[in-house]
Amino acid sequence: MSAPTPPRRQFLARLPLPERAFIADALRAETVGGILLLIAAVMALVWANAWPGSYETVSSYTIGPSKPLHLDLSIADWANDGLLSVFFFVAGIELKRELVVGELRDPRAALLPVVAAVCGVALPAVIDVIVNSGPGGHRGGWAIPTATDIAFALGVLAVVGSHLPSPLRAFLLTLAVVDDLIAILIIAIFYSHGVKLWALGLSLLGLVLFYVLHRARVHGWYIYVPLAVVIWALMHEGGIHATVAGVAMGLMLRVTKDPGEEHSPGEHIEHLVRPFSAGFCVPVFALFAAGVSISPHALAQVFTEAAPLGVVLGLVIGKTFGVFGGTWLTARFTRAELNPELAWADLFSISVLSGIGFTVSLLIAELAFGHDPELTERVKAAVLVGSLLCAVLASVLLRMRNQKYKRLCDEEDAGDGDVSGGDIPSGSGMI
């Protein structure tokens, strides 16, 4: 007799209550930050177009010491290199948690978001390279349309009033976490210039000290904050983008609890830092990164020049079909089936939403084309246009299913009293 066929696993199933509670808490701060991000982006556009001289003067104003390290940076660079390091620090903690106690700890559960994220990075990059392969193209910006902005996406969800079920929110969050890891690897490998080995070596020694102190259970913000600043400054001097220091320190934090601890250090620090990151760091970065000239001529260039057109097509088409195609193929070639309460149309809507590539896309645009301010401005405009198109299309698609989502959320809330995190196998929310 042949062996019985193993049961098909369900992905995007309802999450256990503890995991739902964590995701709700994490996304609450990101949602507020996303709304502030939208406001900051609008303010930047108004400021840069109504008073361009004032915007440029403030953005380029230099502060900071020039010795012993070159930290005499413009305000825009401080937002770019400094504030975004806090954002990536939180992203590092999120990734560490996902790898140790979250969905990514189980290879079967991790397969779906990881494949979706990888395909969602690869296809936009391929599209951008193809569009820029002819005369007048600029292949250096291939990585610009590869990243998903979770805060902006959640801000869109908050504005359209969607009752997105927790499995879809968990998928979007995990997708963005893997996306952030790929983005920071791309930045470190492809967009680092003028590496100074002495500074980079000292920065790595600082990271080792950070790790040893943390593993030795040494406590005290007055130790770690100055050490983190030194590590960041040395990484910046070493020619590696300083955000790498942020994600490295986030990955080093312990996310499991010792006996007698109510919360792990990673969870505690993330709870303290996330509101600052989402509510201040990212919006301020957007204020000094999103100020581009918006005119009929500038918008026409977005759709007629190769570099900006590649970004728009990469975000709208590449991210959508990369994420959706990776998800569908993973389910097709594994023993997985979609939660019957959801439909593939829901995954397509989330895939469109993942095309909002605001924060990291603007950062990579600065790194890729910073030597050409006019091209940088056109590519940034393309990021705004592509993200806006994805936001509008995703909003329309999600609103069409909003009543269904509201019913599912009500059922989840009604069942909270009967759900125990210990009664549900770990990793049941994905494949």
Q: Can you describe this structure?
A:
The protein has helices at 17-50, 52-60, 75-100, 107-131, 150-160, 166-190, 197-215, 221-237, 243-252, 265-289, 296-304, 306-332, 344-353, 358-369, 373-400, 402-414; strands at 9-11, 62-63, 73-74, 336-338. The strands form two sheets. It has a two-stranded parallel sheet with strand order 1-4. It has a two-stranded antiparallel sheet with strand order 2-3. Residues 417-431 have low confidence and may be disordered. α1 packs across α6, α7 runs antiparallel to α8 and α8 runs antiparallel to α9 (243-252). The chain is globular. The chain contains 16 helices and four strands. The longest helix is centred in the first third of the chain and has 34 residues, at 17-50. It is 70% helix and 2% strand. It has 431 residues and is mostly helical.
Which SSEs are present, and which pair or pack?
Layout: E1 9-11, H1 17-50, H2 52-60, E2 62-63, E3 73-74, H3 75-100, H4 107-131, H5 150-160, H6 166-190, H7 197-215, H8 221-237, H9 243-252, H10 265-289, H11 296-304, H12 306-332, E4 336-338, H13 344-353, H14 358-369, H15 373-400, H16 402-414
Poorly predicted runs are 417-431
SS strand fraction = under 5%
Indicate the mean pLDDT. 83
Count every beta strand, where a strand is a DSSP E run of 2 or more residues: 4
Largest sheet: 2 strands, parallel
| Main sheet: strand order | 1-4
